[in-house]
Design goal:
The protein has 335 residues and is an alpha/beta fold. It has helices at residues 46-49, 66-71, 85-98, 114-124, 139-149, 168-187, 199-202, 220-226, 239-246, 249-259, 287-294, 311-322, and strands spanning 42-45, 102-106, 127-132, 154-157, 191-195, 204-207, 216-219, 234-238, 263-268, 270-271, 277-278, 300-303. The chain folds into two domains: 9-41 and 272-300 and 313-326, no CATH class; 42-271, TIM Barrel (Alpha-Beta Barrel). The strands form three sheets. An eight-stranded parallel beta sheet has the order 3-2-1-12-9-8-5-4.
Length: 335
Amino acid sequence: MIVQALGAWLAVAVAVIPVAVAPAASATPSPGPCTPIPAAKIGFQLATVMGGFMPPGATPLPSPDPARMRAGTANPPMPRSAPAPADFARYLKALRKIGFRRMERFGGTLQLPQEQYARILREAGIVAVSSHGALEPPEWEAELNRARALGQDYVGSWGFGPIGLDSYEKVLATAENLDRLGKAAAARGLRFMVHDHDAALRFRYPYDRNGDGRLELTTAWEIIAARTDPKALRFEVDVHWALKGLGDEDALVRFLTRNRDRIDLLHVKDRTADGAVTDMGRGINNWPRIFAAAGSRIRYYIWEYERPADPLRSAAIAYRYLRCMPAPDVSTPGS
């Protein structure tokens, strides 16, 4: 999700040459090889850090309705109550001190007045570049208005909408719906994107992918891409969920390479050998290989980590890894 003031940094291509990270004294174990991402392309998903400043019981995670999550139809939940504005502001300023400049919004404006929310972001030096919201009325209309007011370039959701992906007919109807929503967003000057969970890549149907009359099993994601206007619909690929849906990193690399012209954003989170989410650069993902497959047209690399024990510490690890900087000192969380 992109800011209006793109300027010169938009022309900066992402390098794809692995760079070794030198170990630092009193640092956490050194990460593996990395690809230096321009600072202006790195963002964080707000849901990742909400546990650090939201009141007890207000954070809208874990996700609701597992059946809807599996079908790819669940909407992002809204927070149950607002954070203390001073706590929210302090947390954003801590993230800015780490190095983050961009944020993917979640939970509307966290039940805060929109003008106050915008002022807190502005004073912290954080720009909302994208968002995850509901695709159903009336919340969709409200989300379009928020995205415009906050100066976002992208607006979207963490799923593919209410219709579902668990039949071929539903996939076709979803494609039609997303095309319509994307054109509505474009009329407001916004780019529309959707984010995958494993359902979008797990559900597969016979489809004439190449237009040669030969049917082959094709993911719901790719059928939707084929049946929508690229100007109306872009994609944010969540690497973790894509790996779950596709099965392994080789399949992910083929998928990213094949579809890179439709992918504008990546959700980046690392995983352990047993599939659990872990700190960036501390897991088994081959990030230089993954980033190379996605290509240099990626606009934003959005760091995400569901419910980290120490959000600021994990944020510092993630940012420094993505910049190919020495790991942070574990004695100073958020350093």
